Amino acid sequence: MEEQITKFLNKTFILVAILVAGILIFLFAAIGYQQRSLDQQNSNQITVSGEGKVYAKPDVAIVSLGVTTQASTVADVTKNNTDKMNAVIDAVKALKIDEKDIQTTNYSLTPLYNYTSKLGRIFQGYTLEQDIQVKIRDFTKIGDVLSQGTEKGANLVGDLQFTIDNPEQFREQARAKAIEQAKANAQNLSKESGVNLGKLINVYENNYTNYPIAYSKASGLGGAALESAPVPTVQPGQQEIDVTVNLTYQVK
Fold it and tell me: CA distances (Å), 251 to each of 41, 43, 108, in order?
């Protein structure tokens, strides 16, 4: 009886082993066929690229105005900072800067310590910093915003940069140029190599916009710092919108 059971198990094991081997052979064959199909498909494709550039004048200037104050209590530092920042905001609004173009970007309250070799860390009070970002659409007002802001108490000024409020219209122009150049490159490649182009099967785009910065934030300005000095002449220049397009064609 035991001998019959042993024979039966051996036969079952052999059948299972044959079945597993068959499945593995089928899977490896299917993977190999798929890989060969992919290789053949990729060999029947070409990819060409084109680049399009558009230069546009910025229509928005962005500047940061900040107020930092120190006091021994939270109540005092909050009141002092709030009074100055409100005066700065009112001065900016008086220059007909739309309220939607004035945005608070930072409000930071931190304890202030003094370190000595004998006593170690000594609590001195609090430092409060508040920053606003101002969008200026009339470039003739840039100097006024800077001078009026510092006159009213802003002692962190700068991060001036120029940008385009709606860059997509220029990006579309650059994209059209890139596609036109890529198609021309494909036609030239087809003519020179003798291959016939099939249908377009893939498009990939990469775009980049160069945002020049005029100057960075300066701190420690007193109320009369910019008032007593001539306001610098700021040149917005132009921005480059660069789009690269890759087109993939089938080859007949």
Answer: 9, 9, 61
pLDDT tens digits, one per residue of 175-219: 999 999 999 999 998 888 888 888 899 999 988 776 655 545 555
Reading the block at residue 72, the tokens are 């021994």
Question: Looking at per-residue confidence, does 196 or 92 come out higher?
Answer: 92
Residue 196's CB is within 10 A of a number of other CB atoms, namely: 10
39/158 same-domain check: no
Q: Are residues 105 and 222 in the same domain?
A: yes
Structure tokens at 129: 């910093």
Counted domains in the chain? 3
SS3 3: helix
Domain of 199 in residue numbering reads as 47-55+168-209+244-251
E strands, 117-236, are 120-136, 156-163, 197-209, 213-215, 218-219
Separation between Cα atoms, residue 213 and residue 209, nearest integer Å:
13
What is the C-alpha radius of gyration for the chain, rounded to an integer number of angstroms?
34
- 251 within 8 A of 198, measured Cβ to Cβ: yes
